[in-house]
Amino acid sequence: MMNNQKQSLLTILFVGATMTTPLVAQDLQTALQDVEAERYTKAEQTLTKLATSSPTAENQFYLGYYYLRSGQPDKAKAIFEKGAAADAKNQLNNVGLAGVALAKKDRSTAKSLIDNAVAQTKSKDEAVLIRAGEMYTLSDQTNDPAEALRLLTLAQEKDKKGEHKDEIEMLMGDAYFLKNDGGNAITKYENALAAKPTLAEANYKIGRLYLRGKNYAKAQEFFKLAIQNDPEFSPTYRAYADALANSRAYKAAATNYELFIQKSGTTDPELLLDVARYKFLAQDYQGAVTYLDQLKGKINNPIIDRMYGWAYSALGKNQEAVEALNRFISTAPQKVMVDDYKYLGRAQAKLGTPEGDSLGIMNLEKAAPQDTTENLYREIAKTYYDDKKYDKAAEYYAKTIKNDKKPLNNDYLFNGLANYQYGFRVGRDTTAAPMDTAQIRIGRQTYFLRADSAFAQMAQQVEKTAGETYPLAYYYRGQSTYYAYPSAISLSTGAAVPFYEKFIELANAETDAAKKQSYQKNLITSYKFLASYNLAKKDDAKAKEYFNKVLELDPNDADVKKALEGPKPAAAPAKPAATPATKAPVKKKVADK
Q1: Of 12, 460, 539, 555, which has the fewest CB atoms closer than 10 Å, so is most exposed?
Q2: Concatenated DSSP letters for 271-322?
Q3: Mean of per-residue pLDDT scores for the chain
Q4: What is the tens place of the pLDDT at every residue in 359-371?
């Protein structure tokens, strides 16, 4: 909130000083630039040295000002009191004490101190007016932008030559920023730029306004200008990182936040924790862990355990992730959010133990209904499918599809496969309640028909893209339709026929040799079904045609050879003379699974 150009004001403050004034003023100007750029360590060193070597009221004020700006109000108060005692007529330190009162949310004391300082200087001291106006803008919570503007307007009236124009305009912009008056704030910052075209702080603060308005692209434009003005002005990099992160450019955001850390020289653990957050968002999980390791023993913040847990989960260090997240959830239950259960569930599910699978699914289920960024039902379904718990997998793939605006083709595929696989287990699943014959028949039919529906949806989704097909969707539609009913009924109705025929058509049209080869077993099954279907219709010629197609793919198929040969004639008895044997019908064959 202070600009980089303090020379004119410093001249006012140091009238009558010794011959060392130019050097002291230069050091002070550099230190104030460091404060504004949040290079607090350097600023403290310079201002402490000045206040020690030349303990004037002004030097005490600026040391206290550093402490106030760096978030250390108690230290600031002690220094301001020392400065006020050094020169009772100098009102700057009383203005500083008002800033401390505002930081401590004591408005009445702050107002009394500022009003008295302005009155004592008869509203004519530009330095007092400027600093008093600034104090009313420093706190996000306890501020008074209207009073700040009144005081700064008085200062502006005294600044006949415009020597402090850029600084006053910047502070007025800050006051309008607090009033949520973006238009006037930008005007004031632009006025400051007109007075000093290379003022990085002005472009930074215009960018900050656009950032607050969620116009991230425009914000980035001004942050880039600020960096061109002054590559060492560190606050720009922090705000730029925020704008980039909100544009999902996480890697660039992490890079810029690290630049903020480097250029400010901060060792503040909370800011280092922010770097870890950005590293995580950039999927630099090891980088996040590296920053977290620097915070051990320096910060008592349970969020560290959360970050460790998330990063370890992403790195596949699942046991460490489980331990860290369980620690976080137990120590800070009021801060637990959806993602904590998500990453804990993922880590538990990958432990490779039955207990881990169970707990993992439990925690993913907690997160799934509230997670708006990922469809966690898909992960739960996959866990069940991998564990061959096909009934539960089918249930959760159905939830995946229901809770996704754009389900994946594979969601339909695995929903179909899970239902299909469990159809064969109905009545044989030892984890399910016992079933009688009728219940088994109905259960099998339910799962196979659900499978058919899922494969139909998958085929439809794939074929929305011109020229795209998935032949196996039709194969599994045929299989599901066949197994949904007793064999005799399926062969009688022929409901599965069009699906097998469509699969055969698409598979034979495949131009990729490897893919075509992969369909061979499915083609054999399809031909066998069609042969059996035609036998049931008593169309032996058509059945033979399909059996021969099987032999083209597998000349050694014993079942088909036997079906084509028919039964051998019985041996003729010695007496009476043998009569020709009656030709038996070809044995009907059904498709393999």
Answers
A1: 555
A2: HHHHHHHHHHHTT-HHHHHHHHHHTTTT---THHHHHHHHHHHHHT-HHHHH
A3: 91
A4: 999 999 999 999 9
**What CATH number has the domain spanning 1-197?**
1.25.40.10
Euclidean distance between CA atoms 516 and 511, whole angstroms: 7
Token duo for residue 505 = 């058509």
Distance (Å, rounded) from C-alpha 576 to C-alpha 321?
88
Query: Which tokens go with 208?
Result: 């900050």
Q: Which two tokens stand for residue 253?
A: 């955001």
Token digits of residue 161? 């030559």
Q: What is the DSSP letter of 364?
A: H
Fold of 497-564: 1.25.40
Show the tokens assigned to 155.
Answer: 């200062």
Sequence letter at residue 341: Y
- Pull the structure tokens for residue 436: 């009688």
- Give backbone dihedrals phi and psi of 20, rounded to 5 degrees, phi first: -85, 0
Average pLDDT of the segment spanning 554-558: 94
> 256-260, long-range: CB within 8 Å, 24+ apart, which pairs?
259/234, 260/234, 260/235
Tally of CB atoms within 10 A around 335? 12
Name the residue ranges covered by the structural domains of the chain.
Answer: 1-197, 497-564
Q: How many helices (H) and strands (E) does the chain have?
A: 32, 0
pLDDT digits (tens, 9 = 90+) for 250-267: 999 999 999 999 999 998
Given pLDDT bands bounded at 50, 70 and 90, which one contains residue 570? low
- Work out the angle at residue 528's Cα, subtended by the Cα atoms of residues 450 and 439, and round it to the nearest 5 degrees: 35
Domains 1-197 and 497-564 share a fold: yes
Asked if pLDDT for residue 23 goes beyond 80, the answer is: no
- Asked whether the beta carbons of 7 and 25 are under 8 A apart, the reply is yes
CA distance 476 to 320: 42
pLDDT grade, residue 15 (50/70/90)?
very low
Q: Which of 116, 181, 166 is nearest to 3 (CA)?
A: 166
Distance, in Å, from the CA atom of 515 to the CA atom of 102, rounded to the nearest integer, reads: 74
Q: Given the structure tokens 């239902």, which residue do they identify?
A: 419
Query: Are 485 and 457 in contact, with CB atoms under 8 Å apart?
Result: no
Q: Which pLDDT tens digit goes with each residue over 302-332?
A: 999 999 999 999 999 999 999 999 999 999 9
pLDDT, position 26:
82
Confidence of residue 14 (pLDDT cuts 50, 70, 90): very low
DSSP assignment string, 47-63? HHHHHHHS--HHHHHHH
For 427-461, the pLDDT digits (tens) are: 999 888 999 999 999 999 999 999 999 999 999 99
Specify the pTM. Answer: 0.69
Tallying the residues shown for the chain, one arrives at 593
Q: Whole-angstrom Cα distance, residue 399 to residue 394?
A: 9
Query: How far, in Å, CA of 247 to CA of 424, rounded?
Result: 49
- Pick the closest to residue 79 from 63, 101, 103, 58 (CA basis): 63
